[in-house]
Design brief:
about 325 residues; alpha/beta; TIM Barrel; 6-stranded parallel β-sheet
Length: about 325
């Protein structure tokens, strides 16, 4: 089983076909960065058309059992999430509506301060806000998973403590291994995993040691060490693959509507676009390289299966359903 906990590709039949060639059974895709509620609904609508047009390749995922159905029918199950709470605007009532439409993950922040929490690019992290506490409670109730991938340290630790259900970091790496603002310190990862949460390790070059030149041995060695440190059951893959996106999309991700200036984020003024992916992971057909790499650094078959998909499957099964739902 192969499950990727974060992608934001420039979707096309070519990529959907590559998912099948790579044996990817399920993906979590970003369906909103800075969009408001109405704009997000239009994104759901666009995906509905793709599910019709490419029904032999992809299907909408709502529950873990949809991954089983996808595997049985030779398709990839697509689960939706937001990298920003903007789709709920300032209305807690929209949390349940968004879950009903098919959302399964929502980040409380995207780099900046939001109504709910502090992003990892702010100078001061004031933690979870009053509204954030109420939204976490509502997300717990309906089964919308809290994602802190772009949040500050204090906010992430507080979210893990406040939430009555496990939370996730869908796409990041240990700060100790690669000190990027978006990567997570050990105490942050531990706060998430000790509460039953998950971290998905990212293949986005700005999060990698030596960036685009990171070797598969380095990456897989990091995963193996994290399994020892945080528990193999709490880790997976969240590739953050942004395949075939134009560089202008990076500006949209980082700037959205909050600034008139260009925010280069983890890039630089001379290299603001998408960096090249490592040669061993260019698209969805390369998931087999990860499995071989994990085996080469000493992980056994059961551990590799857990990291590549079984851990995320278990997490989906337990956390997409409304609180207290009988299984």
């Amino acid at each position: 089983m192969r499950i990727d906990a974060l992608q934001y590709a420039n979707w096309s039949e070519e990529i959907f076909q590559q998912l099948r060639e790579g044996g990817v059974d399920a993906i979590h895709v970003t369906i909103a960065y800075h969009e408001n509620f109405r704009e997000t609904v239009l994104n759901f609508e666009r995906w509905n058309r793709w599910f019709e047009q490419y029904e032999h390749l992809i299907m909408k995922g709502l529950w873990a059992r949809d991954i089983d159905r996808a595997r049985e029918t030779g398709r990839t199950a697509v689960f939706f999430g937001f990298q920003n709470p903007s789709p709920m605007e300032d209305d807690i009532g929209l949390v349940e509506i968004l879950h009903t439409l098919g959302a399964r993950f929502m980040q409380l922040t995207y780099n900046n301060q939001s109504l709910l929490a502090t992003g990892c690019y702010e100078a001061e992290d004031s933690g979870i806000t009053r509204m954030g506490r109420q939204v976490i409670k509502e997300m717990n109730r309906v089964g919308l998973v809290i994602d802190m991938s772009h949040s500050g340290d204090r906010s992430t630790i507080e979210a893990a403590d406040i939430s009555e259900r496990p939370i996730v970091i869908t796409h990041a790496n240990p700060f100790e291994w690669s000190p990027a603002l978006r990567n997570k310190k050990d105490n942050v990862i531990r706060a998430v995993t000790e509460n039953g949460g998950m971290i998905g390790f990212s293949l986005y070059p700005h999060h990698l040691k030596d960036k685009s030149n990171c070797s598969i041995e380095e990456f897989c060695g990091m995963v193996a060490r994290a399994a020892d440190r945080f528990g193999v059951k709490n880790i997976g893959i969240g590739s953050d693959l942004c395949q075939n996106q134009p560089d202008s999309v990076v500006e949209w991700m980082r700037v959205g509507r909050w600034s008139k200036d260009i925010d280069y984020g983890e890039g630089s003024a001379t290299a603001a676009g998408f960096p090249p992916m490592p040669h061993w992971f260019k698209d969805n057909r390369d998931f087999g390289n990860l499995e071989r790499g994990l085996r080469d650094v000493g992980m056994n078959a059961e551990e590799i299966a857990a990291v590549m998909g079984k851990n995320w499957y278990r997490f989906f099964e337990e956390n997409f359903v409304p609180q207290g739902t009988l299984k």
